[in-house]
Write a structure and sequence with these properties.
With 495 residues, this protein is an alpha+beta fold. It is 37% helix and 14% strand. The protein is globular. It contains 16 helices and 19 strands. The strands form six sheets. A seven-stranded mixed beta sheet has the order 1-10-9-8-6-2-3, with helices on both faces.
Length: 495
Amino acid sequence: MLNQNQIPLLDALKANAARLHAPFYTPGHKQGEGISQSLADLFGKAVFRADLTELADLDNLFAPQGVIQEAQQLAAEVFGASQTWFLVNGSTCGIEAAILATCGTGDKIILPRNVHSSAIAGLILSGAIPIFLNPEYDPVLDIAHSITPNSVESALQQHPDAKAVLTVYPTYYGVCGNLSAIANITHQYNIPLLVDEAHGAHFAFHPELPTPALAAGADLTVQSIHKVLGAMTQASMLHIQGNRIDCDRISKALQLVQSTSPSYLLLASLDAARQQMALHGKMLMSRTLQLADEARTKISQIPGLSVLQIPSKPYQGGLGGSPGFVALDETRLTVTVSSLGLTGFEADEILDEKFAVTAEFASLQHLTFIISLGNTPADIEQLIQSFTTLAKEYCRTNLTVKNANWQNLLSTQGYALHFSPREAFFAVSETLPLAQTSDRICAEIVCPYPPGIPVLMPGEIITKPVLDYLQQIQAMGGFISGCGDISLRTLKVVN
């Protein structure tokens, strides 16, 4: 057992920030002496004294032998990994590196169609061929859940030459599929299971939370420590276990997708967040779960509102829910507002502007909130009161919010890949008015954001249901990202 009281990287950064010396190295502001006064007024100068580069005592992210290596070893022990890498380019670079380390040009990888855009970037960078699986879908709530063990097994039977399986656990809504069953099936083919666990870094710290991906049998998982724990934005970790993945390939892949000038502020925040959870994680998660339970219970009792819960009907596997929904992260709160005659986008705007309550993201029928160790009882009370007033004063019972018909969208897009994402991304393209793009091959990523799940990607055939869906999202107040024309008047297609 390692001494989890230690914070080796943070301590080294603190010592170097306090050392009196003449700096003739980057960054140019020289520990805050040359920083803009407006920045100094906002942040103070202390943070800039710690904004340092790869000095001798601070180790090197790409060849760690000192305090970074020590900090990563401490993190590996806490999160249950055999090896951990710190990430300063977010979970995005971790997902890209995972694909690059396991797949080359022409290799097949099995993954859900509702995967994050970072996985599409990984396909483009690696040249891998995606075998997309449609996730389980709730047509009433218009929410896509996880892929199922049966769908993975069927895909592997059809594509036994696949090099890896990648899945999302949990989804942006906090839904967890049957990951242990998926791991068992994947390992029967002796290939690795890669997991986008960006929103599940807290699972290891309380028994009432879903099983962590590594404990469920994943070979590799990527976690956004900044999303649900106490690290700074953009600070994430990649963990592996077992011998199905070459550690050297992970390290080399990360050198391709991470900055060669990593922020030590981000790295130190990972070290501090690990220590915090190692020492106080269960207590912090107990308090967070209590706050979430209070919010869930009281908001579900407000007329016209409902909250996402795990289905009560058991499925054949013996666990609660369904094959694509076996557990729910109770710190993730999704509130359905459509019975009020409001879209999620409208409700989001009202809560933000009238009640100073800001959700993580909105969709056509729902608002989703992240309740974390940083929230307070006052936050929860403000959230409950804002929904109470919303239901009383803003309800429009004569209107019905239509769902976005994800089911048709997924079935249309699931088998419409004409070129590999890499081929389409680098192909000669042209930009056309939106109305002229139906049945053409997309040359760019198009996704409502958040959550950053692509509706179109390079290589897919553009269909009318997809165009209708994107226009509906936009008309309801959603934001389209990834494409060159975010107004969605035009799209780039393969020439």
